[in-house]
Amino acid sequence: MILTQYGVINMNPNSLPSLNALRVFESVARLGSFKAAAAELGVTQSAISRQMTTLEEQLGVRLVQRDNRVHALTPAGDALASDLSRVFRQIERLVKRTMKNGDHARRTITLGISSELLRWWLGPLLTEFNQLYPHLELQCVQVPEYLSRQNEGPLTHEILHGELDALLTFSAPAQKAVVNWRLTEPRLILIRPAAVPEPTKDNLNEYKFVAVNTNKDWDRWNRAYESKINNENVQFVNNTSMAVELAQFTGRLMLLPECYAKAATEGDLVEVPGFSLDGKHGLHISVRRESQREMAIVALVNWMRHVVETVEKQKR
Questions:
Q1: CATH number of 2-103
Q2: Which parts of the chain span the membrane according to its record (predicted)?
Q3: Could you please report the per-residue DSSP string of 123-183?
């Protein structure tokens, strides 16, 4: 119930009239006719009339006296119209200011990413991202390359408590409050230094290897190709950077996620055809469920997915 100097307007606080209906009334009150209001708002006079009738029914009071073509305001309508015009002018100024500020407002996205993924996957693409989204700034925080039982809890905690806006890792958190998108297929390729002769299935066990000790892909690959490689010929390390350097400097072979093709190119490493493996650890981006519809997060996720799709098309 709203008390004015001209009477009482009965309103249910849980069913306020629509902003559109109030906008129609403000236009009618200011211009003095349904016809003029219809022209200003780009609708028919009958639509204006329906909105006015609905508004009056919701408020429980008549706002306009309908006398032929003259639409005079009632005392209650006059009281409402003066304040309503001021409110809509304030809304228009607020919207314009927001749009103006939005053009220049910067949003910093804190991204958890390993040095390997930054160097060999995301880094070379950042120029394009910055050109497309000049108002978004990626602040990179180093995290492990692979998600594991040991680090999943702490990383999930950082996402849920806003310390990280997004997380880029192989594998993804299982927490329901976190949303994940798989960006790449978990395909692994066998690579060798260019100076090392290309192996065959018959002489694989004569070579030395280096493997990343954060997943079971090496064991799966070994079984898939029945290589029977002695563990004495395999050096296990904790990340791909160390594995690539050992492959370069010690002449070892290694399994490499296909999305790291740039690592092979930089290190004078070449793929050994016929020894690929569909792994279990595709590249994922993870965010808090409550922030998945935030414009900045949507832009980042969609851009990354677009990049992957573009790369895949170029391969075909």
A1: 1.10.10.10
A2: none
A3: GGGHHHHHHH-TTEEEEEEE--SB--HHHHHHHHHHHHTTS-SEEEEES----TTEEEEE-
